[in-house]
Every structure is written in structure tokens, then in C-alpha cells.
């Protein structure tokens, strides 16, 4: 059986992916979202929440907990039923659920920014459509007058 392919640094590809923190999301292309992201990045609390949420939603977080729990139980840091570990994990769950809600609020804010931007676009398009309809009516009226004038010239 073949060995896993290695990168130039000598580590297997899967191991590097597991150990490297999750990549940042690409910068938004939509100008409204870019402005929103820039505004959000100004607040240190938002930056910290984004980093924690990004890490907590990664496989590295899962691997860290597998190692942590295995060591805790394997090295017998405390006896069964692991009261301290249970308390620590419960506190962690409370904080992580708060970060999930923060992440949901951030997603809601992004959706609102997009909805507002799309609404403005629809309003501008509606105005342009009204202008085009007005121009079409003017063209129709002029065309009718030209036909009327041509008919009068033929008849008279």
C-alpha cells in the first residue's frame, strides 16, 4: 500500500490540514457586505467573537477536545464520574452557545445588509422602469402623430 503523499515540508497533507487553524473567509465582493465587514472589524469584541466562532466551528476544535478528554481520563486527573471535567465542559457549552448566538446575530445582520442593498437596487430599477415606460409612451405618442401627419399628407 502506498504511503500518504507528503508536501514539500515532509508532513502528510491530512496532518497539516488538521493542525493548521481554519482559514479566514474570503473578503466579501458585495460592496454593502464589504462596508459591513469593515465596520464590524473596527470593534475588538467582534473580532474576538469571530475568531472564537471560527475556531469553535472547526475540526481542530474537535481534535483538541478528543485529546483533552482522552488525557483527562487516561491520566486519571480525577476519579469517575469526573465532576470537575463535567463542570468545565458545561461552562464551555454555555460560552460556546453564546458564541453560536453571536454568530447567528452576525449572519442576521449580514442578511439585513443584503436585503437593504437589494431593496435599494429594486427601488432604483423601479424608478428606471418608470422612466423607460414614460419614454415609451412619448415615443408611442410621437409615432402616432407621425402616422397621423403622414396620413394627412397622403390624403390631402
Give structural notes.
- There is one protein chain.
- This protein is mostly helical.
- The protein has helices at 13-19, 31-41, 44-56, 59-74, 83-155.
- Helix content is 77%, strand content 0%.
- The relative contact order is 0.07.
- The model has no long low-confidence stretch (mean pLDDT 84).
- It is rod-shaped.
- It contains 5 helices and no strands.
Features of the shown structure:
156 residues, rod-shaped
> Structural class of the secondary structure composition?
mainly alpha
How many DSSP E strands? 0
Low-confidence stretches: none
Shape: rod-shaped
The N- to C-terminal Cα distance equals 99 Å
Share of β-strand residues: under 5%
Radius of gyration: 31 Å
What's the SSE pattern?
HHHHH
Q: Helical region count?
A: 5
Biggest sheet layout: none
Rounded mean pLDDT is: 84
Question: How helical, in percent, are the residues?
Answer: over 70%
Task: Summarize, please.
By secondary structure, the chain is mostly helical.
Describe the secondary structure blueprint for this structure.
Elements: H1 13-19, H2 31-41, H3 44-56, H4 59-74, H5 83-155
Helix pairs in contact: 3-5
